[in-house]
Amino acid sequence: QVQLVESGGGLVQAGGSLRLSCAASGRTFSSYAMGWFRQAPGKEREFVASITWSSGRTYYADSVKGRFTISRDNAKNTVYLQMNSLKPEDTAVYYCAATKYSGSYSILDYDYWGQGTQVTISS
Q1: Which among 24, 83, 91, 116 is placed 20 to 30 Å from 46, CA to CA?
Q2: How many Å apart are CA 85 and CA 35, to the nearest integer?
Q3: 32-52 pLDDT, tens per residue?
């Protein structure tokens, strides 16, 4: 069992940066690949980034590649999403999630979800 709590969301101007954190509880955190998803109003939840349990490999949606960086600290049971050069279209609720399937982009493969944190980018 893994429980996830996101933090770090907020309101920033376009071009700014934010770092999201996701604190996990559960003794098997390091066994899971971790992902970030987002959901804008009226839109489906979409994949943003993921990282394998060993931090050996990361995956990104094309829309955030080069601007966002996912990382994890297994000793702290925490995964991060550093978001730079933010755009108004990045506005969404951001969720972290855990999966047994490394590299998965599919919501269906993720077993555990946080409650989400709001990110709002003003133009």
Answers
A1: 24
A2: 20
A3: 899 999 999 999 999 999 998
Residue with tokens 């077993």: 111
> For residues 119 and 94, is the Cβ–Cβ distance under 8 A?
yes
- Only one residue has tokens 């709001």, namely 118
Total residues found in the chain within this entry: 123
- 87 to each of 5, 93, 100, how far by Cα in Å? 24, 14, 31
* DSSP secondary structure letter of residue 101: S
Give the per-residue SS3 of 5-67.
EEECCEEEECCCCEEEEEEEECCCHHHCEEEEEEECCCCCCEEEEEECCCCCCEEECCCCCCC
Give the residue carrying structure tokens 């060993």: 54
